[in-house]
Design brief:
By secondary structure, the protein is α/β, with parallel strands linked by helices. It contains 13 helices and 8 strands.
Length: 370
């Protein structure tokens, strides 16, 4: 009997120990941090419901009217990520006397920010004259006038809308030199468009760069967009033509064309770009958008690129990328004032939400910390 009693006692102790272990494991599960799986791609045949559809920020696709546009000056990411350029202007605010030295410092600051000589001269002349007329005597006054003069430069290009006609395929072609962020920008635009309920087809017209089509296919999978691609070395024009046909058959309303990066000085490559544009022009309702993507960190070289591309194709707008990583944010003013091409989108980070509709008032406010 004693042996049986001992066996029963040992079994009871073991069961209690197992129970305590299970209880502690359950507690750890309840308190451990939860790792969320990545969100599934948006289904290609479904549109987000009204309850879950994110609002378009400042009308990236034209849904929001100008008077409803988000005040980007209130968006922390824009203000924070223009810090490198803004730091150069902040010293002017501390001036207690407006004299020749102040104006010289302002001129140097504008030039260092890559505003460019012609635009700097125009802005400086305006600030100088108004400072005299209004008898401005301190740095705050100079910054106020500077704010108004910079906005005036940008206000000349009032139409920053992106063409998106309902009921038919709209084609947006992205052009630019290598390494400026065209493909990443296309991915961001595709994500935002799909989130807004549009059906998107990506055209992999960069058939020369190794793995370019694979990179775009990756983004198509991530965003839920369709994709049309050709063989390596295929005629880019045929890819664009097939993409527009595919968009029509799939009831897609937006085709985003990724073109091969090319140096603006290469005549034969620019001629090919003109050919692509002519193919796009055959689409009903064309022309749509030809968006020149420029890396903001290149400064005045970006202005040269813009001039050459504008001569080759009808550039309708500029996408300025990497604005958060440069002290040369003044290139925005140089592009608009000297070429008359509106900056329509700016990239200030890696996320899709970091692609912002350009707003002059908000940009200058964030630039000068107004």
């Amino acid at each position: 009997m004693s042996v049986v009693f001992i066996l029963i006692f040992v079994l009871a102790v073991a069961l209690v120990a197992v129970g305590i272990g299970l209880s502690r494991r359950d507690q750890r599960r309840q308190t451990a941090p939860v790792e969320h799986a990545p969100a599934a791609p948006i289904a290609r045949e479904e549109s987000p419901t009204p309850e879950t559809e994110p609002e378009a920020e400042a009308g990236i696709l034209g849904e929001v009217e100008p008077d409803e546009a988000v005040d980007l000056a209130e968006a922390p990411r824009l203000r924070d990520r223009l810090g490198k350029t803004r730091a150069a202007f902040s010293r002017l605010r501390s001036r207690t006397l407006v004299d020749e030295e102040t104006l010289e410092e302002l001129e140097d600051t504008l030039l260092l920010a890559d505003v460019g000589i012609p635009t700097t001269t125009r802005v400086l002349d305006g600030v100088t004259q108004r400072s005299r007329d209004e008898r401005i005597t301190d740095g705050d006054g100079v910054m106020r006038v500077l704010h108004e003069e910079l906005v005036a430069v940008l206000a000349a290009n009032a139409d920053r809308s992106l063409t998106l006609t309902p009921g038919e395929p709209n084609v947006w072609m992205f052009v630019g030199v290598n390494g400026v962020g065209k493909t990443t920008t296309i991915a961001k635009v595709a994500q935002r468009a799909i989130d807004d309920g549009h059906r998107v087809v990506l055209a992999a017209a960069d058939t020369f760069r190794a793995a370019a089509a694979e990179q775009l296919a990756h983004w198509a999978d991530r965003t839920g967009a369709g994709i049309v691609r050709g063989q390596d070395g295929a005629d880019p024009g045929s890819v664009v033509f097939d993409a527009m046909s595919a968009a029509a058959s799939r009831d897609a309303d937006l085709v985003l064309v990724d073109t091969a990066g090319r140096l603006h000085t290469k005549v034969n490559l620019m001629a090919e770009l003109e050919k692509l544009r002519r193919i796009v022009d055959r689409t009903p309702g064309a022309p749509h958008e030809t968006l020149l993507t420029i890396d903001a960190t290149t400064g005045q070289n970006g202005l040269t690129q813009a001039r050459q591309f504008a001569e080759a194709v009808d550039v309708t707008g500029v996408v300025l990328t990497k604005l958060d990583g440069t002290a040369k944010g003044g290139i925005v003013l140089a592009i608009e004032a000297e070429l008359g091409i509106p900056v329509k989108l700016v990239g200030v980070g890696e996320a899709a939400s970091d692609l912002l509709v350009f707003d002059p008032e908000a940009f200058v406010a964030a630039l000068l910390d107004a």
